[in-house]
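Quick review question:
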């Protein structure tokens, strides 16, 4: 059971929406492995560390369960999910390569003029970078990266395709495993090529650009399985 200390790990909740603040604090602890993969989560211990009641902790854990970062089992409470294995990593990219190029092609066919402009804006957006190390330093990039992919799926016009892509929560799982911070610029350039193809209403180019982006992203994350443990 893990009860992380507030000092050096997480700050007391201070935002207007308490559950949102607790959610972000717990997500940071999980993404940075301060609550290790597979550990049991102590609701009371976290509430003490965060200086809140157990209620917002429970609400935040319910959200984290939907993100796939924790699991709830009857009679045993919450535990953090394990990191992706190499086989699960390959399956995740296999699914993404099936779904997301198709979503990009449909977006090129079905997106409105407003949608196309929004995609180009999102592709060009610069994430804010917080000081320090760990997940908080790249959390904004993770959110921006996920938002771009979710937007492509949304403007594809297929609710089923969009829901299937979003339910993978691929960015959280991949960036919890490994964050290739030195190659964020490559991701931005690849997003730009996808957005340009969608804006040009070219489904073949949009599909190819998404496929190339995901293939490159897979390569960027492979060091997670080759670096010394």
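Suggested answer, residue by residue:
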């Amino acid at each position: 059971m893990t009860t992380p200390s507030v000092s050096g790990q997480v700050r007391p909740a201070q935002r207007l929406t308490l559950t949102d603040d607790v959610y972000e604090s717990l997500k940071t602890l999980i993404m940075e492995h301060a609550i290790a993969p597979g550990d049991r989560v102590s609701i009371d211990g976290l509430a003490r560390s965060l200086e809140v009641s157990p209620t917002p902790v429970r609400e935040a854990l319910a959200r984290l369960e939907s993100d796939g970062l924790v699991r709830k089992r009857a009679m045993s409470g919450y535990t953090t999910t394990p990191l992706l294995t190499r086989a699960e990593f390959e399956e995740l990219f296999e699914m993404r390569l099936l779904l997301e190029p198709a979503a990009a092609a449909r977006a090129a066919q079905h997106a409105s003029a407003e949608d196309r402009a929004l995609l180009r804006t999102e592709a060009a957006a610069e994430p804010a970078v917080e000081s320090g190390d760990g997940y908080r330093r790249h959390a904004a990039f993770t959110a921006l990266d996920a938002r771009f992919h979710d937007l492509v799926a949304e403007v594809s016009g297929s609710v089923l395709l969009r829901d299937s892509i979003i339910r993978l929560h691929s960015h959280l799982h991949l960036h919890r495993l490994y964050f290739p911070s030195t190659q964020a610029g490559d991701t931005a350039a690849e997003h730009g090529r996808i957005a340009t193809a969608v804006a040009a209403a070219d489904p073949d180019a949009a599909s190819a650009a998404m496929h190339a982006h995901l293939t490159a992203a897979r390569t960027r994350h492979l060091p997670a399985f080759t670096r010394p443990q």
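Why it works: Residues 12-16 have pLDDT under 50 and may be disordered. DSSP finds ten helices and two strands in the chain.
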